[in-house]
Amino acid sequence: MVRFSPYSVGGSPPQTSFDASFFPLWSFFMKRFAIFISLSLSLVLAKSTLSCSNIQDFKDFQLENLRYAYHYGKKDKMGFTMAAIAWKESCAGAYRYNAQDPSAGNYHVLLQSAVKLDRLFRGEKNIDRPISGFEMNKIADRLVRSRRFASKIALHQLLEWKKIRKGDMKKVLKSYNRGYSWENSEANNKSAEEYANDVLEKIKILKKFYEKSPRMRKPVEL
Predict the structure, then answer these.
(1) Residues 6 or more apart from 151 whose CB is under 8 A from it?
(2) What sign does the dihedral 172-177-183-189 (CA atoms) show?
(3) Which of 122, 133, 161, 173 is deepest in the core (most CB within 10 A)?
(4) 108, 1 in Cβ contact below 8 A?
(5) What's the DSSP call for residue 57?
(6) Is residue 208 part of a domain?
(7) pLDDT tens-digit map of 188-212
């Protein structure tokens, strides 16, 4: 799935050829690449035992990711929405990287959007300057490792879309998934509609589940 924010940009990060004997940063990239490979392999091995459809069969770490997402977004009335998106996008934190988009984290935020938002949070004036491969790797690493950072980015995107879509949550979800593209494309609109409906259905399931689970309502350190 592709996620969009008002800060999404097009294009691919520049490709650069490195000589390991002359560029110390090469080891940094290789370590991060090894982390992603290791994570991917572990997830493939676990795939047969993980449930992504029935919340009753979720592992403890999946439930904790949903609990965290809910409490992070709760103050902005986005708790169940964030938990549902985490469930939809990453199987509640089980699959946190998609090289095809590329996107990362529990909410599968587009890397280019995350880089621009991180620049915004740090007070940079020119958030639209070119994005390097090094920045893309760093942001992917942070999104995968820190659910707090991933939640901060995802919540900001949702709140921005909520303003743009004047509180229409279905349109907010469609825009989180497809940006503005669903407005002028029948195919993209169909895809975005299916995405939004699925997230809204997950919200209903989560509300019922939380009502019966004191554990999920228990506050979490954000």
Answers:
(1) 68, 69, 72, 73, 82, 106, 107, 222
(2) negative
(3) 173
(4) yes
(5) G
(6) yes
(7) 999 999 999 999 999 999 999 999 9
